[in-house]
Amino acid sequence: MPDLKIPIIDFSEFYSDNEASRNRVVDQVRENCLYNGFFQITGHSIPLDQQKKVMDSAKSFFALPQEEKDLVSKDNTTWNRGYEQLRSQILEEGTQPELKEGFYIGADIPKTHPYFVNKKLNSGPNQWPSGLADVEGFKASTMAYYNSALSLASDLMRALALSLDLDENYFKEFLDGTVATMRLLHYPTQPKDADEKLTRGIGAHTDFGAITMLLQDDVDGLQVWDQRNQTWIDVEPTPGALVVNLGNLMARWTNNKYKSNVHRVINKSGKERYSIPMFISGNPDYLVKCIPTCQSAENPAKYEPITVEQAVSSSYAESYGRAQLYKQGMGKAMDAKANTRPTQVAVA
Asked: CA-CA distance, 105 to 184, in Å (whole number)?
């Protein structure tokens, strides 16, 4: 079997005035989206200083006492903002609640905003942890990174459009008024036999939205399922790089031409692991219809049109619902079910 790795693309060439350089990036994006929907990028527009500051902010938050973190629980809201306790989610059916804690951040919109008034997908004001020594610094570093990541997402969507033989601005309307969620994540260490015991940092799943951009620290644990070779690929952290992957919305949009691939996190490094994914869902009212270049008379559209909000919100509800059922005493039944099925390909 070949030594499998998630490819690294020098995205700086996409900003070049040289058409051949830009096309080289577009070709690499196309190749990886067709294969397994995962790649890493360096040379992107998010400065290293911003990456370091937001990662330091994540570590400072998770170092707070539990009672301080609980004061900003996401359960205080109905719009997915704030702290998520350990074992709150199950993305891989048949596994135990996941060994991660998180903190959700998004566009910090007021309660008078139409998105909040109309209860749009994951839209509302952020919660900020007052227990931090420098809460204003925390707000500044996280929102600076969030806004830079939004800008980078627009660049990535332009590259994706070109890779699909579309106009470079094809996804502009989709991105206007986009909903995007950033998640600070902390994975405690876990036993080395945890794989066999169905304990995950994050269970095997596919993402819900269009694209995800992940900032990792220097501790590994992320694995991507390689369908062709029937094995897991470890995604080694690369300084300054972001891991990019497609979500279910993009797979649906491209008529399954592009892949939304299964991935998971199992932290058996013996160290604490931190990461920061940025999930780009898009304008909640945007109607996702099969892209013209991804269908033909021989390959008609496989899916009915659906709004972004309909597609993404149902997946959120399902994954958190599993954890609630587990906590209500159904865990044993789920574990028994897991023993009769191959867990590595179970997805949300």
From this structure: 8
Q: pTM of the predicted model, to two decimals?
A: 0.89
Residue 176 Ramachandran class (φ > 0 left, ψ -120 to 50 alpha, else beta):
beta
CATH for 8-345, options being 2.60.120.330, 3.40.50.300, 3.40.50.10230, 1.10.150.20: 2.60.120.330
Q: To the nearest 10°, the Cα dihedral for 324, 325, 326, 329?
A: 120
- Taking only the tens place, the pLDDT of each residue in 311-335 is 888 666 554 544 454 445 544 444 4
- As beta bridge partners, residue 82 has 104
The pair of structure tokens assigned to 80 is 């997915």
- What are the pLDDT digits (tens) for 252-277? 999 999 999 999 999 888 899 999 99
